[in-house]
Design brief:
38% of the residues lie in helices and 21% in strands. By secondary structure, it is of the alpha+beta class. Among the domains are: 32 residues; 79 residues, RNA polymerase II/Efflux pump adaptor protein, barrel-sandwich hybrid domain (OB fold (Dihydrolipoamide Acetyltransferase, E2P)); 117 residues; 90 residues, no CATH class.
Length: 624
């Protein structure tokens, strides 16, 4: 009897457990389908926009590898993260090839100089011989004329011989003068060719000096040095590229390093389309750096992009708008514990860098301004400045081609000026003074003041030619020998990017960051920051979370939880909207409970996902 009771009791327990398990299993979908809800609230609402960005330098200068017409190899490089001052050495390239080419060009100049000396010596010898021959021929003509005068007392046949002899001597004199003129013109043309070769060799020397000057890249502003990645090699997708190091061979024009101005920073962030509609330039913002979590700093919206972009490699692939926030630098520097004297020094540095016009105060999202037409008039005469001394081709008061100074001269006077200049090339110092006086008279006749204007072309400055006293009046450096002229070039130095030879000679690499203690280390670019923008304050309004409003069939709907436990759809009128908050003018009452997910979505078909039209982001427009 007891066994039957125990068996009955056990069977009842088993049946009860099975029933409870089945009932619990039937209730599981209902628990999983629980819809989150929120209450409709009434009160003051502050519309805020939140974003997260990173600290960047307001001014950045990118230094690129120069075109050295050969191998561009890095020999010295500033340490990564070092703080470089203006005119500090950032990158130095190997100039051995350029020095070798420069030596060859210098030898070429010397060779041409020797050829010019030989040509002038040969011309002097030829002129002396021609002068003796011409004197003899003229003497023969004079003797023949005297013989003709004695014809009345001579026989007729002897008189005829004297006349024929006189005609022969005159023809010989004319032929000799023509030959002398031809030899002179030939010698002048040979000298002109040699001078052009000399000018070309000097241009090659100048070009090599410029390339050698480009082998040292100096910092244009005071800022942080950021070394670029070496993209010259072959790297596969996803493979990290190494930074540029000493000994690397680069391609011309490739970015090598950035100089970041730490005296003025800004925050780059991204905002959604709804927040973008509520923002405008100049709006106040509050920033909080992750590196300084206990302090908040003031800022303003500096610039905003007009189009949205997306980054597929980031965690958020949605399209967003770029926004740049300026930072109150005095407040920021004081917040990191900097002394007032240091703050004033940094602000002075920011002001000095801003005057240089390096992307300071420029809206990066603004369309480019139309370029003004360039007026290059008056700057062409400097070409060929190396020959300005003897040929007078500098931009000075006179121009051999008649562009400017000789524009008022007649064709005859211009031809005379050209002949006088050609004669000055081989004339002696005494003859030069006479020829120069004649040229001055011609210039005065044309209303040109001798010596007016100085050469403005690059050639005149680079080669020292053409101070411009008209024609070949000024000497410049063209009369110097090749070595003396090259030495004059080296003394003047080559100005590259505003830096002379003395600046490049004294340039040194900045100290490594571990040896240069700076308070600005707390403000390194790349630090993350939270941004809060107060868009508008609305008093005593009804508001719900943004996830509670859905767009369906062009209407804004909310689902209100009824007494029977079901959700009732209601149409609402939106007043203001943001990424997180919706302000409603009608349709719901404070205290009501609304769904945060669409309760009418087909759970089985969509796999518990929200419908395409649900959610506050589903097709809503900008702020109203």
């Amino acid at each position: 009897m007891k066994k039957a009771i125990y068996r009955t009791f056990g069977l009842a327990i088993l049946v009860a457990g099975c029933w409870y398990g089945y009932h619990y299993y039937k209730q599981m979908p209902e628990r999983q389908d629980t819809i989150p809800t929120a209450k409709v609230q009434r009160g003051d609402v502050v519309i805020r926009a939140f974003s997260r960005g990173e600290l960047r330098a307001a001014r950045t200068v990118t230094l690129t590898a120069p075109n050295l017409f050969g191998t561009v190899q890095v020999t010295d490089l500033a340490p990564v993260g070092s703080l470089a001052k203006e005119k500090d050495l950032i990158v130095e390239y190997d100039d051995s090839e350029r020095q070798s080419t420069l030596e060859e060009d210098r030898l070429s100049v010397q060779s041409v100089d020797e050829q010019i000396k030989k040509a002038k010596a040969d011309l002097a010898i030829t002129q002396s011989q021609d002068a003796v021959t011409l004197l003899k021929t003229r003497y023969n003509v004079r003797r023949a004329e005297l013989d003709v005068q004695s014809n009345p007392i001579l026989a007729e046949i002897d008189a005829k011989k004297n006349i024929l002899n006189l005609e022969q001597q005159k023809r010989a004199l004319v032929e000799l003068e023509s030959d002398i003129q031809s030899r002179q013109e030939q010698a002048d043309s040979q000298l002109a060719v040699l001078r052009e070769q000399r000018n070309r060799s000097l241009i090659d020397v100048q070009r090599e000096l410029q390339r050698i000057a480009q082998c040292k890249t100096l910092a244009p502003i005071t800022g942080l040095v950021a070394i670029k990645q070496n993209r010259a090699g072959n790297f596969n997708f996803g493979q990290s590229m190494p930074d540029i190091r000493e000994g690397d061979t680069l391609q011309p024009g490739m970015p090598v390093a950035d100089v970041l101005d730490l005296s003025e920073v800004e925050v780059w962030a991204k905002v959604g389309e709804l927040d973008r509609a509520n923002l405008k330039e100049g709006q106040e913002a509050t920033l909080q750096l992750d590196a300084i979590p206990d302090k908040r700093f003031s800022g303003k919206i500096k610039a905003m992009s007009g189009t949205a972009t997306s980054d597929v490699f980031s965690g958020d692939p949605s399209k967003k708008f770029d926004v740049i926030f300026s930072v109150d630098m005095r407040q920021l520097l004081a917040g990191v514990g900097m002394k007032p004297a240091d703050i004033e020094r940094i602000m002075a540095t920011a002001e000095a860098n801003a005057k240089k016009g390096i992307n300071a105060g420029v809206n990066p999202f603004a369309p480019p301004a139309a370029e003004a037409p360039v007026d290059d008039s008056g700057g062409r005469g400097g070409r060929g400045g190396a020959g300005a001394g003897t040929q007078g081709r500098g931009q000075g008061g006179a121009d051999a081609q008649g562009r400017g100074g000789f524009g008022n001269m007649s064709d005859g006077d211009r031809k005379k000026m050209t002949d006088l200049r050609q004669k000055m090339q081989t004339a002696s110092p005494e003859e030069r003074e006479k020829l120069q006086k004649q040229m001055t008279d011609l210039m005065t006749k044309a209303g040109i003041t001798p010596g007016q204007g100085r050469g403005q072309g690059r050639g005149g400055d680079a080669f020292g030619g053409g101070r411009g006293a008209g024609g070949g009046q000024s000497r410049g450096d063209a009369d110097l020998s090749g070595e003396d002229l090259i030495a004059a070039m080296l003394r003047r130095g080559i100005n590259v990017a505003g830096y002379g030879e003395e600046d490049r000679k004294n340039a040194k690499l900045p100290l490594p960051p571990e040896q240069d203690s700076q308070v600005q280390l707390l403000l390194r670019p790349g630090l993350l920051a939270d941004v809060e923008i107060q868009v508008e304050k609305l008093p005593d309004v009804i508001h719900v979370p943004a996830q509670a409003v859905f767009q369906k069939n062009g209407q804004s709907l909310v689902y209100v939880h009824g007494k029977d436990g079901k959700f009732e759809p209601r149409q609402v009128q939106l007043v203001k909207q943001s990424e997180s908050m919706m302000v409603i003018s009608s349709g719901v009452q404070p205290g009501e409970v609304v769904a945060m997910a669409d309760p009418t979505a087909d759970k089985k078909k969509n796999g518990d996902k929200k419908s395409a039209g649900g959610g506050a982001m589903g097709g809503m427009g900008g702020g109203k």
